[in-house]
């Protein structure tokens, strides 16, 4: 039987080659200079623009970009089409497309005062292009907040030990922020002390699990409220405890997004990064050790239920989905993610101490997410997957269970390892959720207009101030996100999230290509233009299948939807999918006109600011 180590070996080889060679070339290509003043120094305000030490910012960036999608996606795709196609897309696509996407988004933002990709493209194709991309990004953020809060609720319900540990490490992060930035405490001793506290919180979580409502939990779980919580909105579809955690997570994200970055975001992401590095790195080492020393509870070989290649149409249980383009959209963030462009050109660009730090944080951070995807695929391989069509609910337990089995190679009991891997997943999700809310505020600031380096509370009668305010803007995001989740249409939500996220990646690469074309007419556009064209093609085809085949043909014309509610849901999916397709094509057209004007002269006129 095939050993799991081949999955890890493949990505380590391609990722090492990409970082050593391609990222060095890209750094020289965009002319990063450590002596150039970054936006973090130019607009330093102690709130959003805060120069950060490279390891601290890497921790924030990695924690923010790595959420549930690079875990759910590879597991689901590997079960449907086989582990080989999933591995190839991660190992090859990540260093050539995803890491390039993150790096150029970050580098481009540095050269545009730390502004978002929407602002960047508006500089070249006009105000209409800027507003289209910003609104697209803002709506994507709402979907991200909804999906990630949902998945956190699922994990909290499945592993109540994670609730206690998460609360403790958030508290530790608040104290660490004061220690570093108010008392100027020594960095290395503080890191040792507080990281030890984070790992101690894992032990406390194992001893004192916490739940809101009654359920099937480990012995000794502390239940705060009586009953099963059936009265909680969404309890019918999700269960009372899961449904109750979702608003808690969203309120936490709203509060965290309004705080200065030094209070919680930077210290928490830095501390949790050690937890994440241990989970991803520990699982990688455990696979190597377990393979060569045979120390795991079971042989680390690919389970017989997981095929190397299940055919172009996949397994019957998943509904015979075509590998192209759906595999690429399903894996999503493990290879390339549009959400990362919002993080790179949002919070990260405002905290970068030196331009040259973008190589490790932008390019290297995405490789780290690719390694997470490979670990997720490995957990599928060793544990097997009984329900390829199960989506989130089936994939998440697989990651924890398979991860626990892998960690037995290092002497960790399987039950402890499973809880630890669930905590790793939840750490990714919590950091990504509140970062997403903060990014949504940045998008709205640029839509309604806010001078660089200035923030607004939103606590006055001005509608524009309310829309962009750090205390009020989260309301605009979490209310619709919450309604989407409790409506019971979370399956629809996941599909729309995947389509919107991948389209955003294509548009971010388009933005980078336009920037390079306008910067210097001798700059090659292959590094960003080819991945952009591939992603536009994949995403448009994928959304077309969702709109015209799954919803129009199967659900509406063939009556597959069944109930009136399901038919309305299919109609909504069709409308949103079509809007995304039209919006993407319109932006591609604007970008093409601009590049043609710059590269081929005045034959094709460029879009003027404000040109519709």
From TrEMBL:
Coiled coil: none annotated. It is found in: Cell membrane. The keyword Transmembrane helix applies. It is a multi-pass membrane protein. Keywords: Cell membrane, Membrane, Transmembrane, Transmembrane helix. Signal peptide: none annotated. The keyword Ubl conjugation does not apply. The chain crosses the membrane at residues 6-22, 71-92, 133-155, 162-181, 187-206, 213-232, 244-265, 274-297, 317-339, 360-386, 406-431, 475-493, 499-517, 529-549, 569-592. Its main location: membrane. GO terms for cellular component: plasma membrane. Residues 4-380, 395-540 form the CstA N-terminal domain. This is Carbon starvation protein A. It comes from Haloarchaeobius amylolyticus.
């Amino acid at each position: 039987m095939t050993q799991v180590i081949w999955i890890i070996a493949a990505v380590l080889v391609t990722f090492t080659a990409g970082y050593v060679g391609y990222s060095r070339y890209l750094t020289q290509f965009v002319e990063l200079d450590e002596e150039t003043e970054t936006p973090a120094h130019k607009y330093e305000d102690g709130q959003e623009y805060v120069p950060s030490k490279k390891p601290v910012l890497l921790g924030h960036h990695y924690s923010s970009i790595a959420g549930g999608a690079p875990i759910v996606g590879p597991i689901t795709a590997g079960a449907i089409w086989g582990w080989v196609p999933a591995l190839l897309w991660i190992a090859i696509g990540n260093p050539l497309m995803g890491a390039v996407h993150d790096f150029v988004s970050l580098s481009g933002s540095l050269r545009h005062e730390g502004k978002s990709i929407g602002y960047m493209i508006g500089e070249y194709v006009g105000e209409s292009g800027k507003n289209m991309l910003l609104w697209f990004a803002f709506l994507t953020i709402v979907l991200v907040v909804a999906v990630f809060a949902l998945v956190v609720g699922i994990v909290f319900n499945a592993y109540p030990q994670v609730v206690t540990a998460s609360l403790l490490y958030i508290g530790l992060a608040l104290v660490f922020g004061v220690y570093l930035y108010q008392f100027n405490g020594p960095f290395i001793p503080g890191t040792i002390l507080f990281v030890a506290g984070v790992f101690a919180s894992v032990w406390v979580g194992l001893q004192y699990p916490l739940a809101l409502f009654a359920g099937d939990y480990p012995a000794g779980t502390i239940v705060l409220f009586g009953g099963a919580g059936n009265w909680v909105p969404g309890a019918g579809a999700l269960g009372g405890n899961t449904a109750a955690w979702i608003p808690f997570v969203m309120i936490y994200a709203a509060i965290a997004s309004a705080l200065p970055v030094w209070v919680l975001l930077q210290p928490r992401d830095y501390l949790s990064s050690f937890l994440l590095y241990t989970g991803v790195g520990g699982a990688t080492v455990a696979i190597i050790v377990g393979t060569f020393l045979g120390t795991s509870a079971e042989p680390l070989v690919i389970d017989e239920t997981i095929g190397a290649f299940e055919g172009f149409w996949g397994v019957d249980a998943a509904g015979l989905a075509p590998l192209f383009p759906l595999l690429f959209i399903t894996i999503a963030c493990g290879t390339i993610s549009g959400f990362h462009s919002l993080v790179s050109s949002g919070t990260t660009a405002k905290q970068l101490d030196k331009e040259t730090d973008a190589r490790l944080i932008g390019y290297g951070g995405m490789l780290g997410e690719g390694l997470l995807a490979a670990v997720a695929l490995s957990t599928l391989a060793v544990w097997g997957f009984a329900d390829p069509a199960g989506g989130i609910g089936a994939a998440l337990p697989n990651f924890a269970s398979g991860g626990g089995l892998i960690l037995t190679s290092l002497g960790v009991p399987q039950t402890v390892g499973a809880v630890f891997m669930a905590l790793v997943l939840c750490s990714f999700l919590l950091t990504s959720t509140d970062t997403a809310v903060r990014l949504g505020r940045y998008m709205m600031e640029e839509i309604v207009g806010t001078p660089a380096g200035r923030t607004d509370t939103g606590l006055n009668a001005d509608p524009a101030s309310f829309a962009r305010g750090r205390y009020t803007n989260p309301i605009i995001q979490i209310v619709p996100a919450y309604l989407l989740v409790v409506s019971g249409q979370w399956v629809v939500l996941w599909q729309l999230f995947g389509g919107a996220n991948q389209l955003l990646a294509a548009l971010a690469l388009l933005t980078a290509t336009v920037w390079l074309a306008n910067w210097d007419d001798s700059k090659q556009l292959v590094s960003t233009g080819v991945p952009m064209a591939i992603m536009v093609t994949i995403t448009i085809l994928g959304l077309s299948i969702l709109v015209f085949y799954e919803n129009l043909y199967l659900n509406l014309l063939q009556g597959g939807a069944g109930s009136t509610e399901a038919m309305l849901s299919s109609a909504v999916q069709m409308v949103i999918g079509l809007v995304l397709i039209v919006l993407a094509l319109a932006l591609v057209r604007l970008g093409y006109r601009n590049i043609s004007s710059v590269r081929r002269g005045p034959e094709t006129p460029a879009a003027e600011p404000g040109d519709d």
